[in-house]
Amino acid sequence: MTDDDWLRRNRANWDDRVRVHARSDFYDLPGFRGGACTLRGFELDELGDVSGKRLVHLQCHMGQDTLSWARRGAAHVTGLDFSEAAIRTARGLADDLGLAKQARFVTADVYNAAQALDGERFDVVYTGLGALCWLPDIPRWADVVAGLLNDGGVLYLAEFHPFTDTLGDDGKSVEVDYFDDQGTTWDEPHTYTDGPPLAHTVSVQWQHPLGDVVTALAQAGLRIEFLHEHDTTLFQRYPVLERTGPAEQPVFRFPEGHPRLPLMYSVRATKW
User: Fold this and answer.
1) Which UniProt keywords apply (predicted)?
2) Half-sphere exposure of 56 toward its Cβ, with a 13 Å CA cutoff?
């Protein structure tokens, strides 16, 4: 499969998802306009104060996390995504919230971020949950991240743990090779939110072992400050998981007495 093939399929799939996501209860754009924050508590704690900083959010989708950082005091935020439909929605949100001067949204493939942003450097590169599986080349991604950071700048990455991809639907048995590095083509009629079926149903995704991600960042010249593995996730990935936490931002974990497994992870790394 060529770069054009996977990129074309994934872009068409995500352009189509925006049509559904923007109207979904899952993303709840009316609630976001009303003041809701989409960032998770551990992200706010681990990245810390962003006041006065310039932040770029790679693979920003419709821009809610990007704009949440602006609401948290970032001096200027930039969201980048390869879906023009997602970027149009993000720009509309910024206008609605009066943040258009504080927030910029750019349409580009993440691998072309440096060119799309004219070589600009940032204090923070942020990448949120569910992003890396759409990229085939993690060392190339890490080089992009390093190139976007000022000296002393910080990458903050929050992701679903790759071990979760090895388990079967019951969450109890290992069924997938953890080290499989071949892209998997999926043909799924629905996205992960509520809403009508998709017209463009085919996508291509990749697994990335945790060691590959951390090693790529280190080899790109970043110093790893921490790698945290979390025993909660944001949705009921397996039937055995139990819902807990506040109603407005619940999390899911294995029940008491069940062996705990890593469900998400987060990395903070600094460019020196």
Assistant:
1) Methyltransferase, Transferase
2) 28
- Identify the CATH homologous superfamily for domain 4-271: Vaccinia Virus protein VP39 (3.40.50.150)
Other residues' Cβ atoms within 10 Å of the Cβ of residue 3: 11
Tell me the three state secondary structure of residue 137. Answer: coil
CA–CA dist 182, 173 (Å, integer): 21
Tell me the whole-structure pTM to 2 decimals. 0.96
H helix intervals, 1-104: 3-21, 29-33, 41-47, 64-71, 84-96
As a whole number of Å, the end-to-end CA separation of the chain is 36
CA dist., res. 55 & res. 224, Å (int):
19
Q: How far apart are CA 254 and CA 245, in angstroms?
A: 13
User: CA neighbours within 13 Å on the CB side: how many for 191?
Assistant: 24
Tens of pLDDT, residues 127-184: 999 999 999 999 999 999 999 999 999 999 999 999 999 999 888 899 999 999 999 9
DSSP percent split of the chain into helix, strand, coil, nearest 5: 30, 25, 45
Q: In this structure, are residues 237 and 254 in contact, taking their beta carbons and an 8 Å threshold?
A: no
Higher per-residue pLDDT: 170 or 30: 30
Question: Does residue 112 contact residue 7 with C-beta atoms inside 8 Å?
Answer: no
